[in-house]
Design brief:
alpha/beta, GTP Cyclohydrolase I, domain 2, Alpha-Beta Plaits, 4 domains, 8-stranded parallel beta barrel, 19 helices, 24% strand, metal ion binding, Folic acid synthesis protein fol1, Folic_acid_synth
């Protein structure tokens, strides 16, 4: 092997190398150095680079690789080193027969100057392959020395380690190796540095010899031994043979394991828990999921606990124990008076075991209900039966994703001091191992009480947007509809049921039945007349023997609570309210009682006045704070267009304030589908702005601060609500603004192609539902748009 070397030193990059010293999969600065054995004698003689390794090409290839993989979790420094070695040995980059690679991470260990992974790879001799972890200047405090004054005070020692391993083993957690050394050395005492070096080697082999560690080269330096000397110390290269017939170490120190990330914390002693408190509770079930979750929340409120708000509902794959049904997961924000954390825990356990008969046969196995306290005010608790903040919350997407819907972006973890939203983004880029969880992605789920979970198609990926767009077909039962001039009003019930079956066969998953025209300027019929138009049709569809209608979801387009209630009683599934609860707030009570999906359509005024109510202003209320948060990146967004910003925020603010009202009536977030209300109190430009910026309605969040009184004492509280995790419906079909654009103001049925264009844009902007009259004509538009923008085909 040639002794000539071509090297590239310390290419700077950023990479995720597994979990850092704080147990987070966060990007870390690294440097990459490569040393190639080559023979450049001919290049020296001819002064021609083609006879040597082109280090410019090598540097570019390595830099390009690191840049394109900066969001990939390599899970270890060794994985990066292996990949870089492959590039260096490739003839297109380096072409050397032997390559040495050093990956240096200066920030991954808070006690050490740096950690390095060094490997040598050969194309011709695998026996030459060697790997090592190197730790530079691990600074520790311990009792060391023989003199009395040395035994009275801890001294600084610097430890340099080189641990030779057979090959990078994913089971070898190098941070834990370092923590073990730190915990052992700092809880022990030594008379000589020779003993300290020996014990470091013994500890390493005793704990990790089964993970391929072959030798340990340890150096201990006492930097403060003499005032005129930089340091004194010893080093030793050790193998398992050095510890033959040596008594094993008695490890009686308290290990700093990752499960104790929550320390230091406090107990409940000394706290006065009188007054109002807020907690966040994780909810999970994989046995009769919605039934048990609904019962658990009812029982919770029976203890005097107020359900302030909930997250969306999610379907998640099981974690740890994989052979079991999928889980439903959500998080609830609750408030209560005087309950301590342990009292709250007692209540939750009573609900789990006494009320819902949870049986814990195996750890992390199937369960009727699981209720965990995630946060309680800003309190930190660490007792044998309760740890707050929850110790595993930062490694579970099915906890953090719904939790972040309930927390403003600046709220930090009480211990890590890092925003919860940042922790979530780290989780989203750090997928668990397959043996831990097959897939950590969540599907937002909109429950429908009438049908089973398997029959329900309303489930959506609200992070990657890879779920099929659902089609809602329209059946107007009015004589004055803008779109069809009462096409079905005079038809027989049998004919209309047949038309409903036709819509389903054409591709509609939902049929939206309306008995009141809400076009601008329309006059509403009486409630009796509305029921006469819609109720018989709902009954007839549910009684039909047509297989196409057996599983279709029925939506009722009404803003009247009594109409909604009576239709739900005979088989309707969804309430579609164009007034967002403004015309009849009792509709919130009905939606809460039946647990049905509720489409909240933004509007202002009435059909007679809404066309004049198109002015939207910036927020002027000091008690309202607005955010725009991308759910995938976690970043807050802004726009440089003040008018557009005022409009989108204005629509979202008005929707949000109504949603917060619905929560007080008992509606859950997972019931609500957002409709920004194209054509309702919007002018032409505003309608187009909704279509072009539809994804905004998955990003808006609002915090409303309010002053309340508890027991005569003033109390400051806040309500936070986010569109993150919510489904969006866009309804543009045949609407007037399309006639204006196309020059077809008097012929709604000729606006099909214009409608198709808006559907494509809506799907590109992550719409989950589109509401159309012409299902047959639009189904291919939906399929093609899903293929283009969601890669679904």
């Amino acid at each position: 092997m040639s002794t000539d070397l071509v090297f590239v030193k310390e290419i700077s990059a950023t990479a995720i190398t597994g979990k850092d010293a704080w147990n987070r999969p966060a990007p870390q600065p690294i440097t990459v150095s490569v040393f190639l054995n080559t023979d450049f004698h001919r290049a020296s003689v001819t002064d021609n680079l083609k006879y040597s390794v082109n280090y410019a090409v090598l540097t570019r290839h390595i830099s390009d690789f690191l840049k394109s993989n900066e969001h990939r979790n390599f899970k270890s420094l060794g994985s990066i080193a292996e990949a870089v070695a492959s590039i260096a040995l490739d003839e297109k980059s380096g072409g050397s027969e032997v390559a040495k690679v050093i990956i240096k991470s200066p920030k991954s260990e808070i006690r050490a100057n740096s950690v390095e992974y060094e490997l040598v790879r050969s194309r011709i001799d695998s026996a030459a392959n060697i790997d090592s972890y190197n730790v530079t200047k691990l600074r520790l405090l311990t009792i060391i020395g023989v003199f009395t004054f040395e035994r009275l005070q801890k001294q600084i020692v610097d430890v340099d380690l080189k641990i030779w391993i057979k090959k990078d083993d994913p089971r070898l957690d190098f941070h834990k190796v370092v923590r073990d050394i730190v915990d052992y050395v700092e809880s022990s005492n030594f008379k000589t540095v020779e003993a300290l070096v020996f014990k470091i080697g013994q500890l390493t082999f005793q704990n990790y010899s089964n993970l391929g560690i072959e030798s340990v080269d340890a150096r201990v330096t006492k930097p403060n031994a003499f005032s005129h000397v930089e340091g004194v110390g010893v080093s030793s290269l050790m193998t398992p043979k050095n510890f033959t017939n040596v008594e094993p170490l008695a490890l009686n120190y308290v290990a700093h394991d990752k499960e104790d990330f929550n320390l230091p914390v406090e107990s409940e002693e000394g706290y006065n828990y009188k007054g109002r408190h807020v907690a966040y509770i994780a909810i999970g079930s994989n046995i009769n999921q919605m039934e048990n979750i609904t019962k658990a929340l009812e029982k919770l409120q029976g203890y005097g606990i107020i359900l302030e708000s909930t997250s969306s509902m999610y379907i998640s794959k099981p974690m740890y124990h994989l052979d079991q049904p999928d889980f439903f997961n959500a998080v609830a924000k609750v408030s209560f008076i005087d309950h301590s954390p342990h009292k709250l825990l007692q209540i939750l356990k009573e609900i789990e075991y006494a009320h819902l008969a949870r049986v814990k046969e195996i750890e992390n196995g199937p369960r009727t209900i699981d209720l965990d306290i995630l946060l309680y005010d800003n309190v930190q608790i660490n007792t044998a039966d309760l740890i707050i903040p929850h110790k595993l919350m930062l490694e579970r997407t099915f906890v953090l994703q719904p939790l972040c819907e309930l927390l403003p972006p600046d709220q930090t973890h009480p211990i890590s001091a890092e925003p919860f939203h940042d922790h979530l983004q780290q989780l989203l880029t750090n997928k668990p191992e397959d043996h831990v969880q097959k897939d950590s992605s969540l599907l937002q789920f909109i429950p429908v009480p009438r049908i089973s979970t398997d029959e329900n198609v309303m489930r959506f990926d609200q992070i990657n947007y890879k779920s099929p767009t659902l089609c809602m077909g329209i059946l107007n039962m009015t004589p004055d509809s803008f779109s069809d001039a009462g096409k079905y009003y005079s038809s027989s019930l049998e004919e209309i049921v047949a038309e409903a079956g036709k819509l389903v066969k054409q591709g509609a998953q939902i049929i939206d039945i309306g008995g009141v025209s809400t076009r601008p300027g329309s006059v509403a019929p009486s409630e009796e007349e509305e029921l006469k138009r819609v109720l018989p049709l709902v009954k007839a569809i549910r009684q039909s023997t047509d297989q196409n209608l057996a599983k279709v979801l029925i939506s009722i387009d009404t803003y009247r609570s009594d109409v909604a209630k009576k239709c739900l009683e005979v088989g309707a599934d969804i309430i579609n309210d164009i007034s967002m609860g403004r015309y009849d707030e009792r509709i919130f009570d009905v939606v809460a009682e039946y647990g049905c999906p509720y489409i909240m359509n933004h509007s202002k005024g009435t059909p007679q006045t809404m066309s004049k109510l198109t002015k939207y202003e910036a927020n002027k209320n000091d008690d309202i704070v607005e955010f725009v948060i991308d759910p995938k990146s976690g970043q807050q967004e802004t726009t440089n267009d003040p008018e557009l910003n005022n409009f989108l925020n204005g629509v979202s603010r008005e929707l949000s304030l109504q949603i917060l009202k619905s929560f007080r009536a008992g509606v859950k977030k997972w019931q609500i589908i957002l409709d920004p209300g194209v054509g309702f109190a919007k002018n032409l430009n505003q309608n187009l702005a909704i279509i072009a910026n539809g994804s905004f309605f998955k990003k808006y969040s609002i915090q409303v601060n309010q002053q309340t009184s508890i027991g005569g004492n003033p109390n400051q509280s806040s309500s936070y609500f986010s569109f993150n995790g919510m489904s969006v419906l866009i309804g543009t079909s045949r609407k007037k603004f399309l006639g204006t654009i196309t020059g077809k103001p008097d012929s709604p049925s000729d606006r099909v192609m214009a409608t198709a264009a808006t559907i494509t844009s809506a799907i590109q902007q992550h719409a989950d539902f589109v509401r159309v009259h012409d299902v047959d004509a639009c189904k291919d538009v939906i399929k093609t748009s899903d293929a283009i923008y969601k890669n679904i085909f």
